[in-house]
Amino acid sequence: MSLPPGFLDELRNRLSLSQVVGRKVMWDQRKSNQAKGDMWAPCPFHQEKTASFHVDDRKGYYYCFGCHQKGDAISFVRETENVGFMEAVEILAGEAGMQMPARDPKAKEKADRRTQLVEVMEMAVSHFRLMLKTGAGTAAREYLARRRLSDAAVDRWEIGFAPDAWQGLWDHLKDKGVADDLILGAGLAKPSTKGGQPYDTFRNRILFPIRDARGRAIAFGGRAMDPDESAKYLNSPETELFDKGRSLYNHGPAREAAGRGQSLVVAEGYMDVIALSEAGFGATVAPLGTAITEDQLRLLWRIAPEPIIALDGDKAGLAAAMRVIDNALPLLEAGQSLRFAIMPEGKDPDDVLKESGPAAMQALIDAAIPMVDLLWRRETEGKVFDSPERRAALDKDLRAAIARIKDPSIRSHYGQAIKDKRWDLFRSRPKGQGAQGASRVPWEPGKGRGWAPVPPVLHSTKSSLLATADDQAQEVLREAVILAILIRRPDMLEHVESRMERLDMIGPDHGALQRVLLRHAHEGAEVLERTIIERIGAVALEKLFALNHVRITPAMRHPEDDEIVEASLNEEIMKLEAARGLRREIADAAQDMDTLPDEGMTWRLGQAAEARNKAQRSQSEDKATYEVADNGTLMNRDERDALDKLLAQISPDKKKGK
């Protein structure tokens, strides 16, 4: 069976080799650099203890320095699964979500045609480069000189020129013996609608060859020399070689530069890419005249885990940034996101380089903001939240945006980040303004490097109003139970992973155990325990499981019973969350006494206390140390005392609802 042209290229583009290989090996975390796609592990093809098996994720190849096995994703599946070439392709296609093509007896003929089309494109590149050096290209050369492009740079980027002639390229290619269907098939000419001969696609334009990741010329981008031309930039039409939504300008060279450690920068146009690359930012690409598509995002993440979108500091640039966010949200994964470097108002990267130099551009790149910050600004820019209805509308819009994130862990972290920003926004009103006052959030294009992440509104458990020694001791025991259950049954982490990530561990070694657990639980109990011993030490595990409170927990006495384990785990986490949540609410309310309306604060504290009550296993537990609040809520005496102190500061009339 023959595969259609481009199928294997698309398959390799969609798959990460480290993901394919990662099913069979354990990566050496100390030696590997995931951000650079530089991964190391013990070789799966021969027995060894050292990590001599190297995967270059960006180039898509592996090599073992011990047994000298090498290849790509297809050869790896063939060797490890003991299957043939086509079966390996079918396995990988299934993982990549690609439909295997039906048998095509003309596949070889199509491959031959693609080769011919590439040859025609290379002939066009040479012709246009020659035209730039003729008298017809004088104005184009002057334009490039005004853009500060040297002759050497023009040659490096193979920039050319299409004279203002209807059949200049057509006649040149026909003289070379090129068939009509190949010229038309390459998108270099268009058929006449009036029955005449076909005419050139590009006329009176500066031309930038567009090459695929393998360096083959597949299309052109043309800038009009006539200021009255309706389309300032024009790309080749879609052809057998060129899919605009799945291509990037400067893809191959940028991938190589990113592999050498440069930050991957995404600019808007050809001239920005050229200017940035000439200034030393070689890992720069651009989409081709459209908003960044999902396919282009996947290509970018194949090059680097966190590309930096460098957009113009005008309304169009900001609007483009927002479109990128909408496309990216459903595709986000752990370690796979975007950052945004917004240029000063009215400027593009080329302007920044000319006026301020590479150092200023590097400063903007270094100050690129996370996507969540830009999402927040989109929903709040220039708006006034002076009523409950407007704040509710903000909440609705933010929930809708976050709901588009498919990865539950990422969605949880976005929700927490937005919650922190929202609390900071409404908490930071001027004193005396009250909850009904206006909170306007301005949008200031070009001041991206001045944006600082909003500090999270968190309160340390240890410094909380209610963090007594007894409370801390009880919480440390709850932490120990949670960690012990998950170490024995790491498969249960998937049910509580986002909640575990948010827990702030205070017990000795608990934070370190939590980090190892979150990272290695998917590898199974045996590997997890071994990793804990290697990273933290056997003593930490021994102390954990020696605790009487841990040993008598139902989940530890019946670790094989899924229902008991899951119920115990959820109960302990819920109690820990509720206890700390109430203390945070009381502490926050104490800070905001002057700005929160009395009734609102009373209601909020009551709700928090009610949540605390629901977390208790039964009212008989620790009955001697609990009392009943005015609303029927069961509270710890310390919690009741702190709440009473706050409520005492509210005027008596308002407290009674008068």
TrEMBL record:
InterPro entries: DNA_primase_core_N_sf (IPR037068), DNA_primase_DnaB-bd (IPR019475), DNA_primase_DnaG (IPR006295), DNA_primase_Znf_CHC2 (IPR036977), DnaG_bac (IPR030846), DNAG_N (IPR013264), DnaG_primase (IPR050219), TOPRIM_DnaG_bac (IPR034151). GO terms for molecular function: DNA binding; DNA-directed RNA polymerase activity; zinc ion binding. A zinc finger (CHC2-type) spans 43-67. Its EC number is 2.7.7.101. It comes from the Bacteria. Monomer. Interacts with DnaB. GO terms for biological process: DNA replication, synthesis of primer. It catalyses: ssDNA + n NTP = ssDNA/pppN(pN)n-1 hybrid + (n-1) diphosphate. The keyword Zinc-finger applies. Its cofactor is Zn(2+). GO terms for cellular component: cytoplasm; DNA-directed RNA polymerase complex; primosome complex. The keyword Lipid metabolism does not apply. Belongs to the DnaG primase family. This is DNA primase. Residues 608-637 are annotated as: Disordered. RNA polymerase that catalyzes the synthesis of short RNA molecules used as primers for DNA polymerase during DNA replication. Residues 262-346 form the Toprim domain. Contains an N-terminal zinc-binding domain, a central core domain that contains the primase activity, and a C-terminal DnaB-binding domain. Keywords: DNA replication, DNA-binding, DNA-directed RNA polymerase, Magnesium, Metal-binding, Nucleotidyltransferase, Primosome, Transcription, Transferase, Zinc, Zinc-finger. Binds 1 zinc ion per monomer. Signal peptide: none annotated.
